[in-house]
Amino acid sequence: MSTAVGSRVSRKDGHLKVTGQARYAADHPMKQVAHAVAICSTVAKGRVASIDSADAEKAPGFLAVLHHGNAPKMFRPVNNFMSASKPGEIRVVFEDDKVHYAGQYIALVVAETLQQAQHAANLVKITYETSPPLVETEQAMGTVYDPSEFFGEKLKAQRGDPFGAFQSAAVKHEAEYFTPIEHHNPMEPSASMAAWDGDDLTLWETTQWVVGARNTVAETLGISEERVHIISPFIGGGFGCKGFIWPHSVLSAIAAKKTGRTVKLNLTRKQMFSGVGHRSETRQKVRLGATKEGKLTAIQHDTLVQTSTVDEFVESCGNTSRFLYSSPNMSIAHHAVRVNIATPTPMRAPGENPGLFAMESAMDELAYKLNIDPVQLRIINHSDKNEHTGQPWSSKYLKECYQVAGEKFGWAKRDPKPGSMHDGKFLVGWGMATATYPGMRSPGAAKVRILQDGSAHVISATQDMGGGTYTTMTQVVSDVTGIPVEKIRPELGDSRMPPAPVSGGSMTTASVLPAVNRAATEALKKIVQTAIADEKSAFHGKKEDEVVAGSGRVYLKGSPPESGSTYAQVLAAKNQAAVEGESTLQPGQEREKYAFQSWGAQFVEVKVDPQIAKVTVSRVASAFDIGKVINRKTVESQAYSGIIMGIGMALMEHTVYDHRDGGIVNSNMADYAVPVNADIHSIEIDFIDKPDPYIDPYIGARGAGEITVTGVAAAVANAIYHATGKRIRELPITPDKLL
Length: 739
Ligand code: MOS
What we know:
By secondary structure, the protein is of the alpha+beta class. The protein contains 16 helices and 29 strands.
């Protein structure tokens, strides 16, 4: 029996990537391509008073300038996530003369070459009428309001009497936690290349959602979605900033229309800080009440975030706290202020990630007050069901995660006293935290084709932003058909393929692979029918249930596969090019019966140089329960990236705004620090690898894109407390906070 699923299959796209053959959005060679350069607002609030492009129009190579005064009519999309129409910002680019944040697109210049476009853009003179912007949360408190929902989830919830229970609790902890604005900073900046052929638009994009891009661009331009073709075969990382559809995808299209040319628009690194969303700042008040034995009696989690003046996106930090631990009394609430900063967007585990920094720091603080081991405190308060919805978990192996990662880490040898462990001149600290992320699933479709040469294709309008979708698709087809992975060609990232959901919410695996499995099974059914229909074959006249396809062959039930014909022989006998199976699957009743959630445990060792307050994360040991592991190699790689991103969040990442003009002070990769190899030391990852029995009948995997970042920042902060006795509740934990 073939077992490609579950093994360490190397990336199907790996060779293309390391040899530079993988074509990213800006790489597609096009004849006669013109270049667009976006001009962004230098003020954060006000209106555009004048745009003078006279000098630009005389510059060499100039082709066009577009702005609110001359842009074609555009429309606000439906903005419905479920119908796959979701702009990053509902205000249409160039809609009017208003300025809502620094970095907002004001004009677009198109010229023959990139240098000419940059030169002409420099010659455009723009004047503004400005008013003082609201950039800091404190300044914007006059705008505070309670948003009601976030993707269908209510943002306020209560169980029991959390206020009374907190007041009367034997042991209490209450504190406020702060996380800053962060930016995704994928290696590949966003890019869009547009070409019109009559009324048909082709966009080469870097997007986590080809179907969403097609629908959103079509609705914005007011053309039918059948006229729009999105091509995005490779994505150089996304982390959420390529999930919703941002204005550059529309700007390239209107520029191409205006000039009659293929137009390429690349965002600069600086524009990546204003044009594709960010993670909002969060201020979170947590109150925990417990008995002397450590049983939680009250959980309160109150979150204040920023959103923009043009749309609403809420970092829903408290939602996990509704069910993370067992407690009869619980309340969560969310508040938002409107600031003159671009609209926030999902960034790897939006809500869960900053939410767990607060909650898992608070649990550590409570553990110290109780004098109970932090792991033990979490086990005492383990939630055996989702206490918010009342549903049983589809599967949950969190205790196993604590055990597996804790043993590997050597947690039992920890002396809980802060400052008690040393390594030479370094203070050593050990901290831990729980990780969690929902097990989402959406409708997904796929097509599998078995060809006369014995190879196969697997096709879906999904995306691979680095997680390994190209590879996992072929593993599933290989196991169903017996065709080796090397002979299976995966195709994705094209809006004309069978539709799949956004590669966000960690749901690509759970949404697409069940459909791939079913499509492969359908293809086998077709090849059985083909064999039976062949009058010259040994299968002719048999019933379908007397003939089996699998292990690379068609054979009679009860006989060994080798006694039958290969797929190639069956197709060659009729000189048929291929058989094809297609399937669309969607989640069903199981979503009402069970709560789907992934779980994990993060254990972190830090070494702190007390003289210069330098923190090194010297060891991480983590274990995750994500249901079945489809590809241990690619999922380990994805887990490394999540943990490394968590270390960056804990120690480095922080976007700094100038409160006077809303400009970003560190919008470049030199000043916005992310971890490099020198910052990263030992990381050990384990998976419990038990299939989720309910998420789908075939695959049993819940996805791993986001959970691995959650909990890391809290585990680092907890380790720093253990090393130094200093409790830092504000990220990032830079040396100035420890001196
Ligand atoms: Mo994600 S932040 O759902 O790409």
